[in-house]
Structure formats: C-alpha cells, structure tokens
Amino acid sequence: MGPEFGFPDLLSRKDVEEAGERICASITRTSVLKSDALNEKCGVELLFKCENFQQSGSFKYRGVSNAVIRLGTMDRKKGVITHSSGNHGAALAAFARKLKIPCLVVMPDSASEFKRQAIYRYGAEIIDCESSLESRESTLEGLLSERGMNFIPPYDHADVIAGQGTCGLELLDDVKKIDELWVPVGGGGLAGGNVLSVGEELQVVGAEPALARDAYEGLKLGVRQPQMEPMTCADGLRTALGELNFSILTKYKLPIRLVTEEEIIRAQSLMMSCLKILVETSAAVPFAALLKYGPHQIESRRIGVIVSGGNILV
Amino acid sequence: MGPEFGFPDLLSRKDVEEAGERICASITRTSVLKSDALNEKCGVELLFKCENFQQSGSFKYRGVSNAVIRLGTMDRKKGVITHSSGNHGAALAAFARKLKIPCLVVMPDSASEFKRQAIYRYGAEIIDCESSLESRESTLEGLLSERGMNFIPPYDHADVIAGQGTCGLELLDDVKKIDELWVPVGGGGLAGGNVLSVGEELQVVGAEPALARDAYEGLKLGVRQPQMEPMTCADGLRTALGELNFSILTKYKLPIRLVTEEEIIRAQSLMMSCLKILVETSAAVPFAALLKYGPHQIESRRIGVIVSGGNILV
C-alpha cells in the first residue's frame, strides 16, 4: 500500500462511535428500504441500508470524511491525494470540494471514462498512470514528496475503516434489532468497520464474487492472498484485502459467501424491480448471496444488507 | 365515473390529517431524497418525496388505505372492486390482500401484461373488458349489483383524495419548511389532496404532459374537459380530472406547467443517474417541469417534488 501509517494497536467499536459523532453532520443518513416481495422470496425480513443514496454515490464518503476530518486543520489545508479508479476517488474529490481543499487523484489510464468524469466534475486534479499497482504507487509516492499532500488510502487505514463502520451503527439505530448484517468484501474497509461496530451483537456475513475470492481463500488459509486481477463485473470488489482489514476479519472469523456473475446481475435486476433503486454490481453481491444461501443462522429473522453504492452509467 | 358517491360539502385539511392518523400504520413513511447535482442544475434545493418506495409501488396505496378503512368492518368484508389499468388497481389489490378481503379489478384488455401480472400477483380477481370507458363502467356496474362489493374509485372520491393528501403532510413534517410543492396531475387525486393539506401554507404547482393537458385547458376555461385518449408516455396521467378534483383545483387556481415527451424521458433518466432511483414516466413529470421553468415564485428556495411511483418493467 505504499507509505506506512501509524495504526492504533486496537481498533474498536468506540473508534467507530467516535467516527459517527465526527461525521454525522457531513454525511447523509441514508434510508433503509424494504420490499414485501423480496421478503417473501427470501423467507426473512430484509432491511436494505441504501448507501447508493450516500453523497458521491457510495459508502466510501463515510471513511473519507472521517479520515480527512481527523487530519486536523493544518494538515488538511495541504490537500489530499489518493489512487483510485472508482468510488474512493469520487468520495475524496467530493469531500475535498466541500472543504475547499486541493484534491489529487492518481488514476490508471484503464479507468472507465464514466468514473473519470465523476472525479473531474467534483473538481479534483487527475494524474494518469499505467494500470499496474506498481505504477500507481510510484506515481503516488512521487507526488507525495513533491506536493506534501495527505495520502488517504482506500481501505487499509484505521480512520477509513472506522468511518465505514458507521454504516452498521446507523442501521441498528434506525431498525433497532437485526440478527445478521451482510456486506460486500473488496478491500475490507466496509466489512472490517462493521465487524468492529456491530459484530459483537450480531452476525456479520461477507459476500464476494467467486471470480474475486481472495478474501474467502485468504481467511480459509490464514494467509492474505495477493490481488488476482479478477475479471468480475463487480468492479468495486476487484481489490485484495488490506493488511489491517485482513487482521480484523481473521480475528472475527468472518464467514464469506461466494456468488457467480450471473447471480450478481440477477440480484441487481431484482433490486431495481422490487426496491426501485439503481445499484452498482458490487452493491448487489450480498443480496445475491442471500438469495443463494439464505441466512447464515437458520433462526435469523431480520437481516440487514448494506447496499454499497449506485455509481453506474445509465 | 359510474355510481355516485356522497361527497362531503367541504373537504379540508382536517380530513387529510384524520386520514394520516387512520393510515399511518398501514403505509410506508417514504424517504425524502436530495441530490447536490440536481440542486445545482435547478438553482434551488429539491426535496424528492419518494412514493416509488410506497407499498404497491405508488402513492395510490395511501388513498386506497384511507377509503377501504373508512368502509367500516361490515362493508369491508364484502370486498372491494375497481376498474383500473394501472397503479390504483395494484394498490387496491395489495391492500385487500393485507386485509384478507376479496378484490376484483375490471381491466381493459389493452392493459399492459406487466401491470396485469402485478395485480394478479397480489391475488386479485381480474375481469376483462374492452378498453373504452363505457365498457369499463358497464362491466363494473354489472359486477357491483351482482356481487355487492364496494367500489373504490381511482381519484374522484373524498376518502381517496384525503388519503393522497397525506403525502404532502408527511413531507412537511420531515423537512419542516418548503416554499413550493410540485405534483403530477392526472385524475387529480394527488393534486387535490395536497392542495387541501398544504396548499394554504405553501404554493402547490401541478405538472402535466402537453399531450394530456385536459387539466391545464379545463382550469383555464373553467370547464372540465373530457378525456382526450392522449398518447403520452406518462400512462398514469392519461385520465381526465375527476369532478370533485376539478372543483378543488379550480378553487385553488392551481398553476399547471406543461412538458413534452422528450422532457419527461430526460427527467426520468436524470433521476435515475443522480438520485439512483427507478421512477415511472408519470413520476418524472413534475421534475421535468421544474427543469424547464424553474420555481413558480422566483424567491422560492426549497421545493418539494412528489415522485408518484416506480412501476415500470425492468
């Protein structure tokens, strides 16, 4: 992940609660949607936490808000930088614009024009690099020393993880009781954050595309797996687990369910027709897994599902 | 409209408030969504009241709930009947299923297979008729005398109008202050109900497809216009204003804005890309009008927009 960061030894629910206090005025408290038709189909009550309605179109805005606010006034003024071809870059650009601080996004030339446009519209400066991880990191490090900006990584960072965990806290606060919370697993920021925030009182379950199952394999083997350059349509979940994220999920023994590409597309379409919402493929993965496997514990009745984002071209 | 109903001489905000108390446990308190991008585009703050998330997929569930509850236990048991090729039929079928009472929907054979399937899935009996208004009415009247069920009309009915008006009350309660409320105008149930509920404290504005401008012409001329069998893509707005609805909107001098088919489709697509929601064409009409004309009063800053439904095939 390039430059090192000082992680606290122990990241806990308290960190997520503090993040919630810190960012509550910056973020959107997103809606929770239900559908009788989907409940009947799954035989349980599903509560969809709609981060596709979040500012910048995904949950990434939570982690970014927490991390950038935590920089402190002096550092923050120097601006922020990241490498991202997707939602993290858009979230950082959107939050930087709100704070009127400079933002620079290193972006592989293979990134989709749609996502590039989104980051551009939020007013960030875009620096191109080649699509390899090495090129991203060397470009980023060069710019870091040159400009003195603050690197805000997409998932392998305590403040980012704590920010993402606020999602589950809000859901619990709104619906009072759920038996399980299903989340997509990419870099592990969302999964890790919500394991910290609500994992003690309910079962958190991860879902991953079968074509990008580095987390599934890594947790099974006890060894973090390298990025596999997977071809899944769920582009937000192509990244490998981060280090800190891997530690959190390993300690929790997160169960992970795998789904095929067809199952993801079918789930996305069902969410459109029954919930009336536009979600990106990555965001359909947990619901696809629920449709396939049912709840983790047979006695579970109320299942929270995090809908991670809605950034697709329409 | 076939059989006559005893309308109260005066329908008022109090009737809507009572409807709100009556149906609050039956309906979904729908979310209010915002988008910075759309706010920038319109130069005002837009607050979208999302009835596409309502049970049965549209605001029609409000009016139906109020009218059916008001029948009283004895009458209600006999079941409910209506003629509808769209959202009103689906709402009645869905609410009847919840109450476990019989429901019969007279449906023109020209109705879309998608809408027919929705009503069928809710468990209602469907009786086919020809697509003319005469055929609908004679089929309905025959069934009424034969089965003794209660006719719940789609819009020209005090209880239905009062139910639809709860939409604006909820929005105001959630967002505290708005300067204007924009609504689509079809039969006039939604427009009439919200004129009654919030029309005194803020400006209600109607929007209609230019191809189906019977309300616009009728209010201008002071004479209710007949159905024109309009070809607009906004199928929920093809009906002419009801009598009671016409009286309410005339008394209020409702301003009505007209939009083209292209403007409707463009607004629908913008709502999908910026709000991440699926809305039917009829539901995009008020936003299309706002995009075209801007707010009714130049000093208005916060505009409520009722998103009437999301029932389209995907």
Summarize the structure.
The first copy, chain A, is of the alpha/beta class and 314 residues long. Chain A has helices spanning 13-23, 36-42, 60-70, 73-77, 87-99, 113-121, 133-147, 158-175, 189-198, 214-221, 243-252, 261-275, 281-293, and strands at 32-33, 45-50, 80-83, 103-108, 125-129, 150-151, 180-184, 203-209, 256-259, 302-307.
Describe the structure.
2 copies of one chain form a homodimer. The first copy, chain A, is of the alpha/beta class and 314 residues long. Chain A contains 13 helices and 10 strands. The first copy, chain A, has helices spanning 13-23, 36-42, 60-70, 73-77, 87-99, 113-121, 133-147, 158-175, 189-198, 214-221, 243-252, 261-275, 281-293, and strands at residues 32-33, 45-50, 80-83, 103-108, 125-129, 150-151, 180-184, 203-209, 256-259, 302-307. In chain A, the strands form 2 sheets. A 6-stranded mixed beta sheet of chain A has the order 1-2-10-7-8-9, with helices on both faces. In chain A, helix 3 crosses helix 8 and helix 8 (158-175) crosses helix 9. The model of chain A is unreliable at 1-7 (pLDDT under 50). At the A-B interface, helix 12 of A face helix 12 of B.
Give the tags:
four-stranded parallel β-sheet, six-stranded mixed β-sheet, 15% strand, homodimer, disordered N terminus, globular, 314 residues, 13 helices, alpha/beta
Element pattern of chain A in H and E: HEHEHHEHEHEHEHEHEHHEHHE
User: How does the overall form of chain A come out from the CA principal axes?
Assistant: globular
**N→C terminal distance of chain A:** 33 Å
**Rg of chain A, alpha carbons:** 18 Å
Characterize the main sheet of chain A. 6 strands, mixed
Strands of chain A, count: 10
* Count of helix runs of chain A: 13
Strand content of chain A: 5-15%
Instruction: Determine the fraction of residues in helical runs of chain A and give it as a percent range.
Output: 40-55%
- Assembly level: homodimer
On the 0 to 100 scale, the average pLDDT of chain A is: 93
Low-confidence stretches of chain A are 1-7
The interface involving the most residues is between:
A-B, 21 and 21 residues
Structural class of chain A: alpha/beta
In which order are the strands of the major sheet of chain A placed? 1-2-10-7-8-9
